[in-house]
Specification:
Blueprint lengths: L3 H21 L9 H8 L3 H4 L6 H23 L6 H18 L1 H12 L3 H24 L8 H24 L5 H31 L1
């Protein structure tokens, strides 16, 4: 038998999963009511308030959960040979795999980047900023771009993270496509990241000339 605390955690998780499920079915998080969430979680609406004050608080907890996924993603993407090619290919493969395995979290991320409340947008912006900062740390510790300063590394990392974030819906839409088409998309994404990297190297060269 579950303890009272475990039941509470289970119900809380059920409410969050129900919200994500509705988002995955095509609903926009900003238009979902707590009654819909409670119904799909199998609890009465009054039970919702024992866990969250409103839908915004539930959404903020979903952002926290997404942040944990992004940190796992970052750890997994570190498994490469230390080269630029290995870094790019590993990052893309890991991101595509994570999006396909956790579609509802990434639908939620795509919606929250531009919609929802300011608190949700700010929370997600902070998670993506943390993700970019981790990327800066990884690049700095590697042999890649050894002469690039901190400000430029920040900019490069933000461009890389933005590129990944912008591909999210495309990845989700391609899950039912052929493997060849998905590979085509991965190759195009790799080219985009290469252009960012080559631009960073050229920028540093031009900066030295000046």
């Amino acid at each position: 038998m579950l303890s009272r605390e475990n039941k509470k955690r289970q119900t809380r998780k059920s409410l969050m999963d129900a919200a994500l499920m509705l988002v995955g079915k095509g609903d926009n998080f900003s238009s979902i009511s707590l009654r819909e969430v409670a119904k799909n979680a199998g609890v009465v609406p009054t039970s919702f308030y024992r866990h969250f004050t409103d839908m915004e608080e539930l959404g903020l907890n979903l952002v926290d959960e997404l942040g944990m996924l992004l940190r796992k993603l970052m750890r997994a993407s570190r498994q490469h040979d230390g080269s630029f090619d290995g870094f790019i290919r590993s990052s893309i493969d890991v991101y595509v795999d994570f999006v396909i395995k956790h579609p509802n979290h990434f639908y939620f991320m795509a919606q929250s980047r531009t919609g929802g409340t300011q608190a949700l947008r700010n929370a997600l912006r902070n998670e993506l900023k943390f993700f970019a900062n981790e990327l800066v740390s990884d690049i700095r510790q590697s042999v890649m771009l050894p002469n690039v300063g901190s400000d430029d590394l920040d900019m490069i990392s933000q461009l890389i993270v933005s590129t990944f974030a912008e591909t999210t819906i495309d990845i989700l839409d391609l899950t039912e496509s052929t493997q060849d088409y998905l590979q085509e998309f991965v190759d195009r994404t790799e080219k985009k990241l290469r252009l960012i990297w080559l631009g960073a190297e050229a920028w540093r060269s031009a900066d030295k000339v000046v």
